[in-house]
Write a structure and sequence with these properties.
Helices cover 57% and strands 11% of the residues. The protein has 406 residues and is an alpha+beta fold.
Length: 406
C-alpha cells in the first residue's frame, strides 16, 4: 500500500472524508476508487459513491476476491444508509462468506451486522435476534462495535425491552467515545430520547394519559385486556389476537372498549365500524355477523354480550379494559414512524419496511406532504422522503414487528 492510499485510509478512519479525497481524488487505481467511494458516501453523495465502489470492484478483478468483497460490503452499507432496502442481500451474504474464508473476521462480522440491521428495519425481529446470537462482536472496531450495540438497542426497543435497550445504549456511548464519531453520538442521543418520550396514549373510560415505553412495557405484563391501536391487536398477558387485516373488527372492539363498562349502542357501533350515519336493517344484519366473528376471535380472552340497546365488552377474569392509542392519531403514522429516524427514505424502501404496497405508501406520502409533515427531493428512482420535524414522541410501537403479531 503506497503512502497516499495509507494516508487517505487514515483520514477516513479519523472522520475526515475531505482529507481523504485530497489525497486520492485524481487517481483511478482500484484502492483509490474504493476510498473515493467511501469518502463520497460520508459526504452524502450516495449515487456517486456506489458507482465508484462498483468501478473499484470491477478493477480489482477476480484474483482480488477479498478486496472485491470489501467493496460489496461498503456498497451495502451505503444502500442501507440510503434506505435502499431492495439492494440484493445475496451479494452481501456471498461477500461475507468470502471474507470469512480469507480470514478477515472484522469485515465479515461487520457484513453480518449490516444484514441484521436490515432485518430490524423491515420488522423481521426473530431473524435479527438469531443473527445477533450468532454474531461475535469481539473483533469489531469501536465504530462498528457502537453500531452493533445500536442494533441491540433498536431491537430491544422494538421488543419493548427498555432495560436491555438502556444497557445497550450505555455500552454504545462508551465505544462511541473511543470512535470519536459525532454521527454515532447523535444516534445514541436520539435513541435515549426515545426512552423518555411519550410512546402511546392510555384510554380507560373517560380518562386519558400519555405513557413512556417502560410504562407500556409494564402494561403489557399486566392482566389488563389491551386494545392496542398502535399495532392493531388485542392483548392480554402473552396472548395476542392480531387484527391488522380485520379493520372492521378492530373498530368494533375499540369502540366497545371505550364504552366499558356501560356498553355501546348498535347505532354507535355501526357509525364506528361502517361509517354509516343512519343505521338501517342491512347495517344491523352486518353488525350481527361481525359481532359473531369478533366473539369467535376473542372467545379465550373476553366476552361480547348483547344488551337491550347494543353490546358490552367484558373480560373473563374481571380484569380491566384499556385502549392503547397513538400519541397523536394519524392514519399515516407508520410512515411517519419510519421517517422519524432522520434518514431519507425511498417509497420502495418504506413499502418494504412496512409490508405495504408501494401505491399505498405513495398515497400516504402525498397526503403527509400536503399537510407539511414530510418533504421530498430528487425525481424518479432518486426521489427520497424526509421528515422536516422529528415527531416529539417515541415511534417504536408504530413500526412493524411481524414475528410478534403474525
Amino acid at each position: 500500500m503506497d503512502s497516499l492510499i495509507s494516508a487517505a485510509a487514515q483520514a477516513l478512519a479519523a472522520g475526515d472524508p475531505l482529507g481523504a479525497l485530497n489525497r486520492v481524488a485524481l487517481r483511478d487505481d482500484p484502492p483509490a476508487l474504493a476510498l473515493r467511494g467511501i469518502a463520497m458516501a460520508r459526504l452524502g453523495e450516495t449515487v456517486r459513491a456506489k458507482a465508484l465502489l462498483r468501478q473499484a470492484a470491477r478493477a480489482f478483478g477476480p484474483r482480488a476476491a477479498m478486496a472485491r468483497a470489501r467493496c460489496v460490503v461498503a456498497e451495502a452499507e451505503i444502500a442501507l444508509a440510503a434506505r435502499d432496502l431492495s439492494w440484493p442481500t445475496k451479494a452481501l451474504a456471498e461477500a461475507r462468506e468470502t471474507l470469512e474464508q480469507h480470514g478477515d473476521r472484522i469485515n465479515a462480522a461487520y457484513a453480518r451486522s449490516l444484514e441484521i440491521r436490515r432485518m430490524v428495519l423491515i420488522g423481521h425481529l426473530d431473524d435479527a435476534e438469531r443473527g445477533l446470537a450468532d454474531l461475535d462482536p469481539t473483533p469489531l472496531q469501536p465504530a462498528a462495535r457502537t453500531i452493533y450495540e445500536l442494533i441491540v438497542a433498536g431491537l430491544a426497543l422494538r421488543r419493548l425491552q427498555t432495560k436491555a435497550a438502556q444497557a445497550a445504549l450505555e455500552r454504545a456511548a462508551r465505544t462511541a467515545r473511543q470512535a470519536r464519531s459525532p454521527e454515532l453520538h447523535a444516534e445514541i442521543e436520539r435513541l435515549l430520547g426515545t426512552l423518555s418520550a411519550p410512546a402511546a396514549r392510555l384510554i380507560q373510560g373517560a380518562e386519558q394519559r400519555l405513557l413512556r415505553l417502560d410504562e407500556v412495557e409494564a402494561l403489557f405484563r399486566s392482566d389488563s385486556l389491551i386494545i392496542d391501536a398502535c399495532r392493531l391487536a388485542v392483548r392480554q398477558g402473552g396472548r395476542i389476537v392480531p387484527l391488522a387485516r380485520r379493520p372492521v373488527l378492530f373498530a368494533l372492539v375499540r369502540r366497545l372498549a371505550e364504552g366499558t363498562p356501560d356498553g355501546v349502542s348498535r347505532s354507535q357501533l355501526i357509525a364506528a365500524a361502517f361509517r354509516g350515519k343512519e343505521a338501517d336493517e342491512s347495517h344491523r344484519a352486518r353488525l350481527r355477523v361481525e359481532i359473531g366473528r369478533l366473539r369467535q376471535l376473542l372467545k379465550n380472552i373476553a366476552e361480547v354480550s348483547a344488551t337491550r340497546d347494543g353490546f358490552v365488552l367484558t373480560t373473563q377474569g374481571g380484569h380491566g379494559i384499556v385502549v392503547l392509542a397513538q400519541p397523536i392519531e394519524d392514519e399515516n403514522a407508520p410512515v411517519l414512524a419510519c421517517l422519524a429516524d432522520g434518514e431519507a427514505w425511498s417509497s420502495s424502501g418504506l413499502a418494504l419496511a412496512l409490508g405495504l404496497s408501494q401505491r399505498t405508501v405513495q398515497r400516504a406520502l402525498d397526503a403527509l406532504a400536503l399537510s407539511g409533515k414530510v418533504q421530498s427531493f430528487g425525481r424518479g428512482r432518486a426521489q427520497r422522503w424526509t421528515c422536516p420535524v422529528v415527531p416529539a414522541f417515541a415511534t417504536s410501537l408504530l413500526l412493524p414487528a411481524w414475528s410478534s403479531l403474525d
